[in-house]
Write a structure and sequence with these properties.
Bound molecules: adenosine-5'-triphosphate
CATH class: Alpha Beta
Strand content: 25-35%
Number of domains: 1
Radius of gyration: 17 Å
Pfam family, one: ABC_tran
Keywords: ATP-binding, Nucleotide-binding, Transport
Order of helices and strands: EEEHEEHEHHHEHEHEE
Protein name: ATP-binding cassette domain-containing protein
Mean pLDDT: 94
Shape: globular
Number of strands: 10
Number of helices: 7
Low-confidence stretches: none
GO molecular function: ATP binding; ATP hydrolysis activity; transmembrane transporter activity
Family: Belongs to the ABC transporter superfamily. Macrolide exporter (TC 3.A.1.122) family.
């Protein structure tokens, strides 16, 4: 079953001249699929992810996610939708340094307003356990290593049980050992049925996902299914 459908996405920048950055991009993502988006620097990967994340609404075409048409919706609607349905893992973790790992993971859960603070805390601990970080729950984020911080960022992305996890270079700032660790967490999540879409430059990361979309000059030029 398709959980995301992008239809004929076109996007232009006007800086300083009109630049056609996404050209008729269409694809579907199935529930539980682990999808990588690859391509040379500047081909439009991050721009595409930004559209899919509902953060950029200035485009042509249509995006449907979890049965909901997102194109043409108000900012309030999209903010609520993001909180409920999407989890984000970026190249830089953007944790609040003075807050503990647990508090950082809890924040989007408290913001959603669906569960009591006690329930959010229990859920946050469960997510930290899932990614092997429970023993660091009460440490300030600033006292964790880069790899540990990125794992906490993954737990934070999971707190509201998102329909889709979106990653923009989720291992881009990590050394080899931490890259492998974070990738193993993504694979484990995918095996458990989590839908993941990640932009990556890491060919090993892409090769370990279920399907790879390759972009060039704002277009999809190839799609490969990986057999594991
Ligand atoms: N706000 C903007 N205004 C004008 N041009 C932009 C803007 N953001 C990105 N671009 C241009 O759009 C193109 C696509 O950028 P994008 O960041 O999506 O590429 P990318 O494939 O993610 O690259 P990288 O792998 O280096 O992150 C590039 O040529 C970039 O210079």
């Amino acid at each position: 079953m398709s959980v995301l459908s992008a239809q004929n996405l076109n996007k232009y920048f006007y800086d300083p001249e009109k630049f056609h950055v996404l050209r008729d991009v269409s694809f579907d993502v199935q529930r539980g699929e682990f999808l990588s988006i690859v391509g040379k620097s500047g081909c439009g990967k991050s721009t595409l992810l930004y559209l899919l994340s509902t953060m950029d609404t200035d485009y042509e075409g249509q995006i449907t996610m979890a049965g909901t048409t997102l194109t043409g919706r108000s900012q309030d609607f999209l903010a609520r939708f993001r909180n409920e349905h999407l989890g984000f893992v970026f190249q830089f973790h953007f944790l609040l340094p003075e807050f503990s790992a647990l508090q950082n993971v809890m924040l989007p859960g408290l913001k959603l307003g669906k569960y009591s603070a006690k329930d959010v805390e229990e859920r946050a601990m469960e997510k930290l356990r899932l990614i092997g970080m429970a023993e660091y729950a009460h440490k300030p984020a600033s006292k964790l290593s880069g790899g540990q911080q990125q794992r906490v960022a993954i737990a934070r992305a999971l707190i509201n049980d998102p329909t889709i996890i979106m990653g923009d270079e989720p291992t881009g700032n990590l050394d080899r050992a931490n890259t492998e660790n974070v990738f193993a967490i993504f694979q484990d999540l995918a095996r458990k049925g989590q839908t993941i879409i990640a932009v990556t430059h890491d060919s090993d990361f892409a090769a370990g996902s279920d399907r790879v979309i390759e972009m060039s000059d704002g277009q999809i030029i190839a799609t490969h299914e990986n057999s594991h």
